[in-house]
Amino acid sequence: MPFQRGPASEPGPGGLFRRRVRTVSRPDGVLQCNRCGGRTVLNTENGVVVKRGRRLRGTKVDTDICANCWTEGITVPMQAAVGKTG
Ligand SMILES: [Zn+2]
């Protein structure tokens, strides 16, 4: 018997809020989270060394991650436009 998909579920209050956030116009080129609408960017580095008072950069692990969603344990890449990457 082939798999049959059931009817689509209605989005809850959180889903409706996220849908509204995604459709709000944003300034051109501004990184914004498509999940929560936050604009705080988080970049993480591994292996940073401080030598003679100078900070040597480590290896980038994550770039342009939403800081608000990261506090909830969710990694969401920030996007400059809806439906586009980067
Ligand atoms: Zn977010």
Describe the structure in your own words.
- Helix content is 19%, strand content 23%.
- With 86 residues, it is an alpha+beta fold.
- The protein has a two-stranded antiparallel ribbon. The chain has a two-stranded antiparallel ribbon with strand order 2-3.
- It starts with 12 loop residues before the first helix and ends in a 15-residue tail after the last helix.
- The model has no long low-confidence stretch (mean pLDDT 85).
- Bound molecules: zinc ion.
- Zinc ion binds at residues 33, 35-36, 38, 66, 68-69, 76.
Helix tally equals 2
Identify low-pLDDT runs.
none
Order of helices and strands: HEEEEH
The chain-level structural class is: alpha+beta
What strand line-up does the widest sheet have? 1-4
Helical proportion, percent range: 10-25%
According to DSSP, the number of beta strands is 4
Beta-strand portion reads 15-25%
Mean pLDDT: 85
Radius of gyration: 18 Å
Write the layout of secondary structure elements.
Layout: H1 13-23, E1 41-46, E2 49-51, E3 54-56, E4 59-66, H2 67-71
Antiparallel strand pairs: 1-4, 2-3
The structure holds zinc ion.
Characteristics of this structure?
alpha+beta; binds zinc ion; 86 residues; two-stranded antiparallel ribbon; elongated
Task: Write a concise synopsis of the structure shown.
This protein is of the alpha+beta class and 86 residues long.
